[in-house]
Specification:
The protein has 2 domains: 4-126 and 319-340, Rossmann fold; 129-314, Dihydrodipicolinate Reductase, domain 2, CATH 3.30.360.10. The protein is an alpha/beta fold. Helices cover 32% and strands 24% of the residues. A 6-stranded parallel beta sheet has the order 5-2-1-6-7-8, sandwiched between helices. Strands 12-9-13-16-15-14 form a 6-stranded mixed beta sheet. The chain has 8 helices and 16 strands. Bound molecules: NADP nicotinamide-adenine-dinucleotide phosphate (NAP).
């Protein structure tokens, strides 16, 4: 068991849900430390009936810590993760900074749990839109080998942290009052709008968010040949990313076979009955851990193609739940190696 767990970025959109998730899943630890920036130092947070005070993220904060779950901006993670590792802790990091580092495993426990054994102190949790997609793709890949994926995302404002949701509320209020709200977090007003840009331009007209979906999918699924064409769009929804996914496989898969594979896959719930107007929607997935799949049908535009719709709570499976599941893998592995000794 890890004795002292530190949550870095405990006050953010993801950090708050990590706290909830740890309690709900009864994650084992003896002591808990909450770390954030100077802005939040001294803030009181109630966890499991106890009041904890947020402390400053600084090198000495890790002297007694053996496990860290972190959700901070990339540049903060780049700086603090080595402090924690030098102090002997293992870091499960939600930021984008370490994900493509060859020495850092990038893990979705339903897809590549074995990668946890190859860490050197830092383990990364993927981008939220990638996580839900690979959970859904994994069973299709095992059965029929995924060759190509065309994905369009409809991403919630909480994907941009607490500031994202605040901006959505302010923008909607301003629009209803007949005023235009000047955007801060997003590139354009988000109220009653869609913004087909998440991140900045990264490669040949694709944004950083889109290229994360390309690179991270290949790393997690352990297949550099998978072709991914993403379009990432911010939508005025507070929680829950939705994705329209077209997947081309090497071997043919019928719609019935795809449905069965989804139904049997860990972490996937199928909600699919068009006649009864049943399909996953962000409102229904809010606060849930699974990846929800529906509208499963043949892609009529190519051979060996399946089209489906996929929704998941970006703050839960897209972030907090995935990180806590990685920490649970570490606990399991530590218990197994203690038994062997
Ligand atoms: N939101 C999602 O759906 C999602 C999904 C997957 C991954 N992620 C990743 O998770 C990370 C956090 O995202 P978020 O949505 O939770 O953002 P957020 O709501 O803006 O929270 C950021 C957290 O980082 C802390 N922080 C910021 N600057 C700091 C500094 N200099 N020193 C110490 N702590 C600092 C903040 O503390 P203060 O309260 O002191 O400012 C806050 O606790 C990002 O890397 C993001 O890409 C987010």
């Amino acid at each position: 068991m890890y004795e002292t767990l530190a949550l870095v970025g405990a006050t953010g959109a993801v950090g708050r849900i990590v706290l909830e998730t740890l309690e709900q899943r009864k994650f084992p630890y003896k002591h808990l430390k909450l770390l954030a920036s100077e802005r939040s130092v001294g803030r009181e947070v109630t966890v499991g009936g106890k009041t904890l005070v947020v402390e400053l993220l600084e090198p000495s904060a890790f002297s007694d810590v053996d496990l860290v779950i972190a959700s901070t901006p990339d540049e903060v993670s780049a700086e603090f993760a080595p402090w924690a590792v030098d102090a002997g802790a293992v870091v499960v990091d939600e930021s984008g900074f370490w994900r493509m580092d060859p020495s850092v495993p990038l893990i979705v426990p339903e897809v590549n749990p074995e990668a946890v054994d190859n860490h050197s102190g830092i383990i990364a949790s993927p981008n939220c839109s990638t996580t839900q997609m690979v959970v859904a793709l994994a069973p299709l890949h095992s059965a029929a080998k995924v060759k190509r994926v065309v994905v369009s995302t409809y991403q919630a404002t909480s994907g941009a942290g607490l500031a994202g949701n605040e901006e959505l509320y302010e923008s909607v209020r301003s629009e209803l009052a007949g005023k235009l709200h000047p955007p801060r977090t997003f590139q354009h007003p988000i109220g009653f709008n869609l913004i087909p840009q998440i991140g900045s331009e990264k490669y040949q007209g694709y944004t950083s968010e889109e290229m994360k979906m390309v690179y991270e999918t290949r790393k997690i699924m352990g297949d550099e040949d998978i072709q991914v064409c993403p379009t990432c769009v911010r939508v005025p929804v507070t929680i829950g990313h939705s994705e329209s996914i077209l997947v081309e496989t090497e071997k043919p898969l019928s719609v019935d076979e795809a449905c069965e594979l989804f139904q049997r896959a860990p972490g996937v719930t199928v909600v699919d009955n068009l006649d009864q107007q049943l399909y996953p929607m962000p409102r229904d997935c809010d606060g849930k851990d699974d990846v929800f799949v529906g509208r499963i049908r043949e892609d009529l535009s190519c051979s060996n193609g399946i089209a489906f719709w996929c929704v998941s709570d970006n703050l839960r499976k897209g972030a907090a739940t995935n990180a806590v599941q990685i920490a649970e893998l570490l606990v399991e592995r530590a218990a197994m190696s203690a038994e062997k000794k």
